[in-house]
Amino acid sequence: MNQTILSELTTANSAQLRQILLELLVKYAYVEGDFVLSSGAKSSYYINGKQVTLRAEGALVIGRLLFALLPQDTDAVAGLTLGADPIVSAVSIVSAYNNQPIPALIIRKESKGHGTKAYIEGPNLNPGAKVVVLEDVVTTGKSALQAVERLTACGYQVTQIIALVDREQGGAELYQSQGIEFKALFSIKEIQQYEA
Fold it and tell me: Which is the most buried residue in 6, 51, 77, 152, by most CB within 10 A?
């Protein structure tokens, strides 16, 4: 990444960052074809968020956008491995640059088979800590809800989930039924209708 691009990404406003991220998602993450999703459902398209979240410019843009959406009293950000790993790390790093350091937690799908056998990796938080769950793509919503369940089992409070893309296939409704606020930077329609 050259110095000019880096400078643009660190000074761009939210609308500009959102446009940059939309272009990155369309260019690198969205593909059409025949796919089976983690839910088992078949789909004519797939969004591989890691094609964007693991790029330096993608991580910086995502970190800045999501950090700006966090409630002021957020104690940590968390997400289910593997899709959320680079997202929570990016937000945590951006928070440090903004002199408001927020730790990142990574939630395993299975407990660690040795040592503490923990489901959650990252700093220990105080009981009642307010954690925002981050996700790359939400379809049915079950992955992020699994993260919420692991966090609440540890005594943390989760009242919000933020995703990069909402496939609009039931996730928002599931979260609403659980009393959890949900935000997505983009709907699948915005991605599919984008024209460069």
Answer: 77
**CATH of the domain spanning 3-192, picked from 3.40.50.1110, 3.40.50.2020, 3.30.565.10, 2.60.120.10:** 3.40.50.2020
Whether residue 64 is annotated as binding a ligand: the answer is no
Q: Which residue has the tokens 């968390």?
A: 78
Q: Which tens digits make up the pLDDT trace of 39-91?
A: 788 999 999 999 999 999 999 999 999 999 999 999 999 999 999 999 999 99
189 among annotated binding-site residues:
no
11 is in an annotated binding site: no
pTM higher than the cut 0.85: yes
- For the range 24-27, what are the long-range contacts, defined as Cβ-Cβ under 8 Å and sequence gap of 24 or more? 24/52, 24/55, 24/57, 24/58, 24/61, 25/49, 25/52, 25/164, 25/165, 25/186, 25/191, 26/191, 26/194, 26/196
142 is in an annotated binding site: yes
Residue 141 is labelled as binding a ligand: yes
Model pLDDT for residues 148-171, shown as the tens digit of each residue: 999 999 999 999 999 999 999 999
- Does 150 belong to an annotated binding site? no
114 is in an annotated binding site: yes
